[in-house]
Amino acid sequence: MNKRKIGIGIMIFAIFIIGIGIGLKFSNSQMNTNMFTIGGLILNAIGLLILVTANKRTDK
């Protein structure tokens, strides 16, 4: 697999994690779901970083 596919896969997985956190927060407002949201945002940033570095290497 190339880096672009890995980055896109991580970003899609991160969106699912963020969705789980938001869904749990709406279903039970007293539940602490900040870890799902923070984890999803961190995974999204990692996926974006992988995509940017993969695109820079292909441009050269």
Q: Tell me the overall shape.
A: elongated
How big is the Rg?
14 Å
Q: What does the main sheet amount to?
A: none
Number of helices: 2
Short description:
This protein is mostly helical.
General description of the model:
The chain is mainly alpha-helical and 60 residues long. Helix content is 85%, strand content 0%. Keywords: Membrane, Transmembrane, Transmembrane helix.
Which terms would index this structure?
single chain, 60 residues, mainly alpha
How is the secondary structure organized here?
Blueprint: H1 3-27, H2 34-59
